[in-house]
Task: inverse folding
């Protein structure tokens, strides 16, 4: 039986919704994501931040096993717009977050 166009996925899954615009405040919370899911998300977010003029950013990946942090750091290390990145201070998430500085234009 074919699914209606707005069905979203297998039976029982909720229908897809239109994307909701997120506020661009310079913070990306990745708690709900797995390392395999951030490969496109982080570069797209960096580009969106750059387009809005944000240069000092924070990526919250949590502490956990460190797998998500390592994935994020690998992306940042090879991204051409990233000037520097470092663990956040205790007041900004400690090693559960990474601070990112984008290159100036």
Result:
């Amino acid at each position: 039986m074919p699914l209606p166009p707005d069905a979203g996925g297998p039976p029982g899954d909720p229908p897809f919704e239109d994307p909701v615009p997120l506020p661009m405040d310079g913070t990306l919370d990745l708690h709900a994501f797995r390392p395999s899911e951030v490969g496109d998300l982080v570069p797209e977010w960096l580009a969106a931040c750059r387009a809005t003029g944000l240069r000092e950013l924070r990526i919250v990946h949590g502490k956990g096993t460190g797998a998500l942090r390592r994935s994020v750091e690998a992306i940042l290390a090879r991204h051409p717009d990233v000037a520097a990145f470092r663990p956040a201070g205790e007041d900004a998430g400690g090693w559960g977050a990474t601070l990112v500085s984008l290159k100036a234009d």
